[in-house]
Write a structure and sequence with these properties.
By secondary structure, the protein is an alpha/beta fold. Helix content is about 45%, strand content about 15%. The protein has 9 helices and 11 strands.
Length: about 350
Amino acid sequence: MVLELWRMAVVWTLVLLCAYFRLLFRLVFGRAAIYPRCAPASHCARACIVTGASSGIGKATAEILALEGYHVVLAGRSLANLEKAAKELHKTHEDLLLYPMVLDLCSVPSILSFVKSVEEWLGTTQVSLQLLVNNAGIFAATPQCTSDGYDRVVMTNYLGPYILTQLLLPKLQKSSHTARIVNVVSFTHRSSRKLPSEFWKMLGKKKLDDEDNYRMAMTYEVSKLYELLWTYQLHRKYLRVSVMAADPGVVETKILRELPWWLVQFAFMMLKGVFLLQSPRCGARAVVDAALAPMEVSGKYFFGGNGFTLPSSALSRDEKLAKRLWNLTEEAYAAIMERYTAPSSNLFRRR
């Protein structure tokens, strides 16, 4: 664990600083691509889903989107926490349209149940699903498997959102206006210069290491790299849906709760001292920028707020790697759907 903590403290900080310096360089020399926020069409009822919405970036994002007029589905593992978040938001803005629904991305039955609930809700409210924000994510200090045998971090950060998105794509594609998917990624993907062969096994129900040798930092990095590779591949394949990546930077949330509390507080104090630590509302700026960017824009990586975009790492933009990941993930997806939805699983396969 000591080596992994050093990786987080040194490598993650360096790649974050490099990202900010690169953004500054592009701004100074007029090479930055900046996309303004655009108000969504107001003549139709529009809905969005924000996962991980009970706190942190997800809650802040949900509030801003609700203020823009969206009917916002607050998705998360705990209904009590979601209802608490909705109550807190209603104290400030009574007229926000918020709908808490349970979703556990580690559980395929939960994902299927959530999708069914969303479809029923859309049918009764006559609103159009125009936005999906895949925000939920975890960091694990020890290896844990889901009930289907997948690594918990990979399932929550990548495979679960993949399944959710595939199941919701028909609704997004039928939207009265161009729909959008926003995947919340991480600057930590820049720490991966290559993908060790054993990491491909995570899509085949193979644990990487035992608890003593678990590479918690690298597992998180790779899960976020997977998410970014998938984002760009979605952009290439689905022309009727706009797809964005949003990197909020370092945000003071509960994602590191499995690490010793004193260590997390020390890290936050150091990051705050060099002005790298943001509040959830500040971190949500990049996510909202991606969500409200012009609808003709797709396949961009938002970072830094104010509509700023950057190129992500060269590895994350490798089309050959993205195709390999896509094919392996589709195999895993098909096996999961066959298990849980047979004999109608082919209904969920991408055509």
